[in-house]
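quick q for whoever's on today - can somebody do inverse folding on this one?? i tried earlier but teh output was garbage lol. tokens:
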């Protein structure tokens, strides 16, 4: 069963195949209206369930559109409206859904929910974000980097801010795609040791540097994300803002990276908190390419999961 649960759980050759497939399908669609179907219709006759226990704009719409462009059908479901949100077990939900649909994509809180869904489903399951990781985002980000700058292998990626779920998937990708990774942020918000350890074990350099200006020296890519994630308590907001303010991506920080460094943010952003609008809208920013590439990368993920 080809579940897409995390980047480090997926074979590097399969990951490379998905990035390359995503780029060809994007090229083939140039100039077509968004509603046009792809020349290939590998999802014809397939039904996909998209379950959300947290809000979403990009994940929800890009998966929905992607399935349709590939000839399939999708249903967007809110976890709260399903019996899942009212006490039915994840295992039973997985078994029932597997009788109706060909693939399940789920955005949830606890990683355990995703893992139980995958364990009990008899159809592929895709991770659309948990509190711990966000692999579909980083597939789009690797694709985006390579479109602009060529192979990501051997490059230096710097994450500044909160060592959160998106940062974790970047660390997984560092190991699988072979790029170096530097984290800069306050010690209390470091990425989990498990993620750092896994990347280091794969042979890439992972550094933790408290000084953001030093961290970005030689960076090919500077990445950040919101200071308060969907699973973080609102009561931690002020403390997080105070701790993270020195790690804002602004013109001075970008000037300390390589002159051709790219800037990424998975969005949604809180403009002028984690990154200034000048950087987000500036020449080094590729944030809307990242958002678009969610569509193309996920089509490749869907096809790999279904083997079509
Ligand atoms: N980047 C991302 O996953 O966005 P959404 O929360 O809008 O899906
Ligand atoms: N770290 C953010 C990513 C949103 C796409 C969150 O989990 O809220």
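ok took a stab at it. sequence:
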């Amino acid at each position: 069963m080809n579940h897409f649960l995390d980047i480090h759980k997926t074979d590097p050759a399969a990951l490379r195949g998905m990035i390359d497939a995503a780029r060809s399908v994007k090229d083939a669609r140039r100039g077509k209206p968004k509603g046009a179907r792809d020349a290939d219709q590998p999802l014809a006759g397939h039904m996909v369930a998209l379950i959300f226990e947290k809000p979403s704009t990009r994940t929800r719409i890009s998966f929905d559109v992607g399935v349709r462009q590939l000839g399939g059908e999708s249903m967007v479901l809110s976890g709260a409206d399903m019996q899942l949100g009212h006490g039915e077990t994840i295992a039973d939900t997985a078994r029932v859904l597997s009788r109706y649909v060909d693939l399940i994509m789920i955005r949830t809180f606890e990683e355990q929910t995703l893992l139980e869904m995958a364990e009990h489903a008899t159809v592929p399951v895709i991770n659309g974000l948990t509190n711990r990781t966000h692999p579909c985002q980083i597939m789009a980000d690797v694709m985006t980097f390579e479109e602009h700058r060529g192979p990501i292998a051997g490059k230096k990626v710097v994450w500044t801010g909160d060592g959160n779920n998106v940062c974790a998937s970047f660390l997984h990708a560092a190991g699988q795609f072979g790029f170096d990774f530097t984290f800069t942020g306050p010690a209390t918000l470091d990425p989990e040791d498990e993620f750092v350890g896994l990347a280091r074990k794969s042979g890439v350099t992972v550094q933790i540097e408290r000084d953001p200006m030093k961290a970005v020296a030689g960076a090919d890519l500077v990445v950040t994300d919101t200071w308060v994630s969907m699973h973080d308590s609102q009561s931690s907001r002020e403390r997080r803002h105070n701790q993270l303010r020195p790690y804002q991506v602004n013109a001075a920080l970008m000037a300390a990276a390589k002159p051709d460094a790219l800037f990424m943010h998975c969005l949604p952003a809180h403009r002028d908190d984690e990154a200034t609008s000048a950087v987000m809208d500036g020449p080094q920013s590729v944030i809307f390419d990242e958002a678009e590439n969610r569509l193309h990368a996920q089509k490749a993920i869907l096809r790999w999961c279904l083997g079509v």
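fwiw Residues 56-59, 129, 137, 266-268 surround phosphoric acid mono(formamide)ester (ligand 1) (CB under 6 Å). also DSSP finds twelve helices and nine strands in the chain. so keep that in mind when u check it
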